[in-house]
Amino acid sequence: MWIRRICDESGWLYPYVVLRVNTISATAIRQGAEGMAPDIIEQILQFLRKEIFTFNIDGLHFQMDSNGILKVS
Predict the structure, then answer these.
(1) Extents of the domains making up the chain
(2) 0.70 cut: is pTM over it?
């Protein structure tokens, strides 16, 4: 309902249905399923599950700040 209200009030955002065409599930990923996200996301999730909040992947530096926001540099 909130999404619909935001769309209605904006005047230019329009909701649309996205049909799932594979077995990827955001709910399953949040619950700890592995192998459903792109490789770099899987790597990030592995670090975060181990509570490692500063790490490098493919030349990118990732660091989680005190507000829980993961920053990339």
Answers:
(1) 2-72
(2) no
